[in-house]
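chain below, 637 aa
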Amino acid sequence: MAPTIREVGSPPERRPVMLYDADCRFCVKWIARWKALSGERIDYCSYQECLSDYPEIPVEQCREAVQLIETDGRVYTAAEAVFRALKEVAPWRQLYWLYQHSPGFAATSEKLYHFVATHRYSFSVLTRLLWGRSVAPPTYRVSSWLFLRLLGLIFFIAFASFWAQSSGLVGSNGIYPFQTYLDQLGQAYQGDRFYQAPSLFWLNAGDAFLQQVLIAGMVVSLLLICGIFPPLLLLLLWASYLSLTTAVPVFLSFQWDSLLIETGFMAFWMAPWVLRERWSKLISPSRIGRFLLWWLLFRLMFESGVVKLNSFGPEGENTWLNLTALDYHYWTQPLPTWIGWYLAKCPHWFHAISVIVMFLIEVALPFFIWGPRRLRNIAFVGLVGFQLLIILSGNYGFFNLLAIVLCVTLIDDQSLPRFLQRRLASPSFSWQFQKRSRLGWIRLPVLLFVLFVSSAQLLTALNWVERRPRPNNKPVLPKEVQLLLSRVRSFRSINSYGLFRVMTTERPEIIIQGRHEGGDWQTYDFKWKPDDLSEPPRFVIPHMPRLDWQMWFAALRPNFRHTQQQWFANFIRALLENRSEVTALLKRNPFPDSPPDAIRALKYHYRFTSFQERRKTGNWWKRERVAEYMPVVKARR
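prediction:
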């Protein structure tokens, strides 16, 4: 083999030139990507056209590897040529530094390059499978534009849904007035209350201010949909919803409430700093901001899957591991749908296979988020399809819609339909990189902080810390880290997730009844939770009926305990007083004219009927009384 030529007599004058093999489709694809990355700093030319300008370089040398000819006449080949050509582009800048200074990195890189070069056909097929027709650097102009508008829609749904219930839930005449809770927090935290429990309602805890915040949240959400200065609007939405969850933890403590707050916080770092974001002038989002949203989506799915592997019920069983969880899920979940009734009738083998598929989607598929275009598209289809199936079988407010909105960030512009790509390439559209803002310098520290905190939370959530040996009973996480986690937790902006960690295998329901003295017991009917056996399970998304959800959690307790369920005691008291704000949350108040003299709560076990039972009775549910949940309470008490 002839020696490699390291210098030419007539170097290029303006900029370096990279020679490549135009007959190699694999080379042509990757040259197109490198050209997009290096911009105008490097000229790219096939050796078939330009080799005559550099007669010192033999044809065999060009066929074996790319050649980079610098303006000083020096020639670099193979991996070194690639690293030098892209040394101004992150993360190639760091890789080039490793090539120069890290022992063994250069030799390994060259061997890997020559292995790929000698198996070009195989890697060309692999490239087509993983990237598709184009390996050009992905851009995310359309998906980021769409993501912010869909996020604004989710915020609007969240504020509007709670606004419709707020007076009966947390108003001064509601079930659990938030002023009372803030008074308790104020006494506990004293001067540290803004940090321990961040909320705008420390400034004003009146009903009017609550309504103003909720209405303002809806207005700001609509402005975000219109693209008016997104960073400021996201900051306002984050602060407003955080204030609500802090002041109303009884009814706003679900994981999707925390997920919405964290999504708003992460989206702030991706949003473009422009007064008005227009469709005709799309802006490429910040890479760090996009990474934060991908990391959030990864944690949401991965943690939800893995926690099921090491979570055991009260009797030591793990229905996820023994593949029986979905035998119970469709009829024990808080608010099932009528489609869930049919899914519950599927045979056990179908449910077992569904659990296996669920683990593949929640545990394995999130890693595709970090892969090339085709893998990201597979992750998008799988995760979105999974959320749609959940929507069909159960009502979880805006949670599944928010998860789908996060998945939108995975779609790059090259994955869009051809007609839309042609439209974006027309002269009427333009795009630009996001301009550096005054807060741009802080994105990297925020990224490192989020990675550190969320990784520590991940270890804790998965119980890996508890499974490792701890000599002398010393915790693996230092006290400083534990203190940091507790401080961060109050802002609900970096969270851990684990939906349905333990599957319930029974469905207890609380039936509340009242009566006038000497009369019969009359049942209070709820709008969405099962009461009437003949009432079919209905769709309620994207609305989130907070009282109905809390009743599901209350029923999981053996019986009523006032010290643990103050909100339930307040609820019963409100029914005894016939408060219109509270009874408006119900489907039917059996005492519209005068309040009852006594109320009791009974516990039943509910279950879906079979096909035969439904044909015979017309009922969707069957039930069995098991206990008295709360004894008779009279108005004078």
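The chain has three domains: 17-131, 141-489, 508-634. The longest strand covers residues 621-634.
thats it, cya
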